[in-house]
Amino acid sequence: MNNFNLYLGRYIRVELPGKVHHTGLLIDFGTDIIVLYNGKDFYYIPLTHIHLLYPIDDEDDEEIEYPSNKPFENEKDPLSVRKILTNSKGIFSEIMITNKAIHGYVTNVLNDYFVFYSPIYQTIYVSFQHLKWLIPYKPDQVPYSLDRTTFTSYPSTLSLARSLDEQLKKLIGKVVILDLGENSRKVGQLKGYKGSMVELITAREEVSFVNFKHVKSVQYPSK
């Protein structure tokens, strides 16, 4: 367990990849995650993405009132990324993967990935190790001000494997989107998956090989 006890309730700054940083009160931590509160939102940040963490003087920031309660609070179990994802199932949240914020909710938690449903991106399979942070919505918030009934059922058209690589193998022969399609060469028909390399055929029938160890998310546009 990381010894962050001395900094609980103190202002800290967390630096993440891409010159991103967050500042706020450290209100909790676990074996592989911290909880940061900036006066508005709770940031659940996995330690694996933290490049630098250090306390800062209170006077450097506006006064933040310590929250009276936390989302997903359950003092009986140690805090962890898996626990937070499991407890957030069905709760509207923002997650950060690649360089995009995705809004929706967790539907399933498997061995090394979780399933997230977004009204924009639909069903996304997200690798645990590539989740940068999760921010739970307030109880009265709904993504994009949509009617809550929009989210009452999510279109699961594919059974779920326990691991992300096994899930990917189910999609061979189908069109997939890797890493939210930020690179056009990561969108195409999945032709094969051997070792750690994923073979795709792009829209222009060009071949791309993607190292699966660096794949952050997988989408299967079934509709």
Overview of the structural elements:
The protein is mainly beta and 223 residues long. It folds into three domains: 5-60, SH3 type barrels, CATH 2.30.30; 81-151, SH3 type barrels; 164-219, SH3 type barrels (Roll). The chain has helices at residues 81-87, 164-169; strands at 11-16, 20-29, 33-37, 42-46, 52-55, 93-97, 100-109, 113-118, 122-127, 133-136, 175-178, 187-194, 197-201, 207-211, 217-219. A hairpin with a 3-residue loop joins β2 (20-29) and β3.
Here the CATH topology of the largest domain equals: SH3 type barrels
Number of domains: 3
- The ordered string of helix (H) and strand (E) elements is EEEEEHEEEEEHEEEEE
Termini separation:
44 Å
Number of continuous helical runs: 2
What multimeric state do the chains show?
A: single chain
Calculate Rg over CA atoms: 19 Å
- CATH architect. name of the largest domain: Roll
Please identify the top-level CATH class of the largest domain: Mainly Beta
Widest sheet: strand ordering: 10-6-7-8-9-15-11-12-13-14
Outline, from the CA principal axes?
Answer: globular
Q: Ranges with pLDDT <50 over ≥5 residues?
A: none
